[in-house]
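Exercise: predict the fold of this chain.
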Amino acid sequence: MTIATVMTLVFGSLIAFVAAIYCFRPEMIVRQTETRRRPPVLLHFALPIELQDRRLTAQQVRSTGLGLFLLSAWFLLVAITFM
């Protein structure tokens, strides 16, 4: 049970790290999508992002980051509860 708790903490922390990038630096991700033909690696992490008119907006990235923060909070709460 301890291994599952540690893995849940690590996974929740990883999701929180990516969510922080999505929420606080959405312009960086939008700029990367405009300069490349294929989406950057960070976009592969969040599958629900759909391009509108073949463009990505900062609002889409930021709202996906908020959803990832909620997901990471759930994982962290579960890990803390099992401690």
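Check your answer against the key: The chain has a mean pLDDT of 82.
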